Amino acid sequence: MPELNYALDTFYFLMCGVLVMWMAAGFAMLEAGLVRSKNTAEILTKNIVLFAIACTMYLLVGYTLMYTSSGSGILPSLGFLIGEENSVDAVLAGGDDAPYYSARADFFFQVVFVATAMSIVSGAVAERMKLWAFLAFAVVMTAFIYPVSGFWTWGGGWLSEIGYSDYAGSGIVHLAGASAALAGVLVLGPRRGKYSKNGAIYAIPGANMPLATLGTFILWMGWFGFNGGSELKVSDVGSANNVAQVLLNTNAAAAGGVIGALVLAKLWFRKADLTMILNGAIGGLVAITADPLSPTGLGATFIGAVGGALALVGIVALDKLRIDDPVGAISAHGIAGIWGVMVVPFTNSDASFGPQLIGTVAIFSWVFIASLIAWLILKAVMGIRVSEEEEYEGVDLVECGLEAYPEFIVGGNR
Q: How far is CA 223 from CA 143, 246, 286, 288, 406, in A?
């Protein structure tokens, strides 16, 4: 049976990776819906190109940094490409050390995670960042910044050694992406017209709420692969039951996030604010990602509800601090991510608060500081912000030479 189990677990792992890859479409649709129409083509360009860059840089450098380094230290080993595939003899040997899925399947699943972390950044810096500066940062983030903290945790590094627990990446993926986004937004500054000199905050509505809602549903669906695949196998009764519990809890937390954000928005704003509800769903999903296995269904609903409410609170708080995040990514992925990591010990007796807190601080500090340095270098070397005139006209025409929603098409004689 080892060969059959190996084939089944490999197939399961690959299909979960496909679901996570589909999240790239979700981020693209969500962000395209929440920016103004004049910036839509550029945000879509960012999303498809960042995915390609993440896949390439993680293949060349990132995966080796994160997973094939030896020891439990702070600095990983430098290497290239992803090594050899598992042999038939290794599979048939059995035992605890025998591989139970393809090494290539592992790479494929992990590469879509690094793309997810980078996708978080694109929405936060939308509508005023130069395309090529963003893509240059994507190279650094996916080849080096993310893999280093990933080595500390999933790669067997020092955070793993002290007992940091993060099942599918509330901190490792989502907080990391939000930390890089926060650094970029602080260097970039807010969109023009967002804040007045007298302290007023002006809403800048997105262009397409149906598209944003579709993007959220796609992310919700893709999250089943994100969390379900992190069980790593499905070929025995225990693992199959775990996968079922993970998917149940993932769905329950998303629902809880929607309800938490809806109720808080109604109490706070007297309106059922759709943008807050969408971010609430994502906040709930992010919150449960640190441990979607241990809680009961009702426990997962509560964790998600708090995550959704925190995403809303974070969006309002960042606005008051004049930190402009057009899609709410820093709050939904960062603040909800911290909540998700820190709530793990309440439902998982194998986790404790000390390592969780150390891991949260370490991931945020590393990614934020490294990203801040990278953003500042890019600002000095090539500039990261479009001109005031270009921002007014929209970055679609400036960066891409076309509009996503052209109002007039001038053709030849008919």
A: 24, 10, 9, 10, 33
